[in-house]
C-alpha cells in the first residue's frame, strides 16, 4: 500500500473517531439544526435605516423574535424573559444578539422601535421590513403566522402572531426553535451550548 494512501486512511479514521467523541449539545428547546424548512437569512432595516442581515452578527448567537410593540402580553413577556436570560449569561451575554422583528411596520416606525426594544436591554435591536413584500418574505421564510385583528377604531387593531423564537449559532447557522414562556433558565442553558 502506498504510504500516502495509508497516511490519508489513518487521518480519515482518526477524524471520524474524534467526531464521534465530540459531545452533541443537549438542547432543551427544539433542535432544528440542518433543517431546510426555515429561513437561513433575512434583510431588514434597523432603526437608523441600515439594512441588516445575519452576517452583521457573525460571532454571536442570535435570538430572533417576531412581534409588535403594542402587543399586550406575548411580546413584552418574551423581551423581559430575554433580559433575564442576558443577566443569567453574565459576561457571555456580550456574545448574544436579540433581534425583535415587527409584524406591524405601519405602527412600529423606526423611531418607536429605537425607543421600545432597547428599553428592555440596550443591546436588543428592533428590525422592520422595508415594505409589505419584505414582511411577507421574512414571515414566509421563518414560518411566522401574523394577522391583523380589527379593533373599535382603525388604529386600535391588534396583531395575532406566532410566539416562538429562533436561535442561530455564532457561525450563522439556524439551530433552535424556542418555544414561548419556558423560563429564562432553559434558554440560558441552550445559549451556553451554542456559545461553546
Structural write-up:
- It is a single chain.
- The protein is α+β, with helices and mostly antiparallel strands.
- It is built from five helices and ten strands; from the N terminus they run αββββαβαβαββββα.
- It has helices at residues 3-21, 74-89, 110-116, 132-141, 184-195; strands spanning 30-31, 44-45, 51-52, 61-67, 96-102, 125-127, 146-149, 158-161, 165-168, 174-178.
- Strands 1-10-9-4-5-6 form a six-stranded mixed beta sheet. The chain has a two-stranded antiparallel sheet with strand order 2-3. Strands 7-8 form a two-stranded antiparallel sheet.
- A hairpin with a 5-residue loop joins strand 2 (44-45) and strand 3 (51-52).
- The mean pLDDT is 91.
**End-to-end separation:** 40 Å
Helix content: 25-40%
Q: Tally of extended strands?
A: 10
- Biggest β-sheet, characterized? 6 strands, mixed
Which residues sit in consecutive blocks of at least 5 with pLDDT less than 50? Answer: none
Structural class: alpha+beta
Enumerate how many helices there are, as a single number.
5
Q: H/E series, N to C? A: HEEEEHEHEHEEEEH
In spatial order, strands of the major sheet run: 1-10-9-4-5-6
How big a fraction of the residues is strand? 15-25%
Question: What keywords describe this structure?
Answer:
single chain; 196 residues; alpha+beta; 6-stranded mixed β-sheet; two-stranded antiparallel sheet; 10 strands; 20% strand
Mind sketching the topology for me?
Blueprint: H1 3-21, E1 30-31, E2 44-45, E3 51-52, E4 61-67, H2 74-89, E5 96-102, H3 110-116, E6 125-127, H4 132-141, E7 146-149, E8 158-161, E9 165-168, E10 174-178, H5 184-195
Parallel strand pairs: 4-5, 5-6
Antiparallel strand pairs: 1-10, 2-3, 4-9, 7-8, 9-10
Helix pairs in contact: 2-5
Amino acid at each position: 500500500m502506498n504510504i500516502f494512501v495509508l497516511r490519508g486512511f489513518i487521518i480519515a479514521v482518526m477524524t471520524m473517531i474524534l467526531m464521534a467523541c465530540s459531545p452533541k449539545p443537549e438542547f432543551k428547546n427544539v433542535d432544528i439544526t440542518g433543517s431546510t424548512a426555515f429561513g437561513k437569512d433575512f434583510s431588514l432595516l434597523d432603526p437608523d435605516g441600515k439594512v441588516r442581515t445575519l452576517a452583521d452578527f457573525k460571532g454571536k448567537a442570535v435570538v430572533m423574535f417576531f412581534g409588535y410593540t403594542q402587543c399586550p402580553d406575548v411580546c413584552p413577556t418574551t423581551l423581559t424573559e430575554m433580559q433575564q436570560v442576558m443577566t443569567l449569561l453574565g459576561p457571555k451575554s456580550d456574545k448574544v444578539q436579540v433581534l425583535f422583528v415587527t409584524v406591524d411596520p405601519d405602527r412600529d416606525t423606526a423611531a418607536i422601535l429605537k425607543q421600545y426594544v432597547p428599553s428592555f436591554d440596550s443591546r436588543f435591536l428592533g428590525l422592520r421590513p422595508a415594505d409589505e413584500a419584505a414582511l411577507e418574505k421574512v414571515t414566509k421564510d421563518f414560518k411566522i403566522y401574523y394577522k391583523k385583528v380589527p379593533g373599535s377604531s382603525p388604529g386600535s387593531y391588534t396583531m395575532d402572531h406566532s410566539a416562538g423564537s429562533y436561535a442561530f449559532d455564532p457561525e450563522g447557522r439556524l439551530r433552535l426553535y424556542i418555544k414561548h414562556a419556558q423560563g429564562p433558565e432553559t434558554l440560558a442553558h441552550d445559549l451556553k451550548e451554542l456559545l461553546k
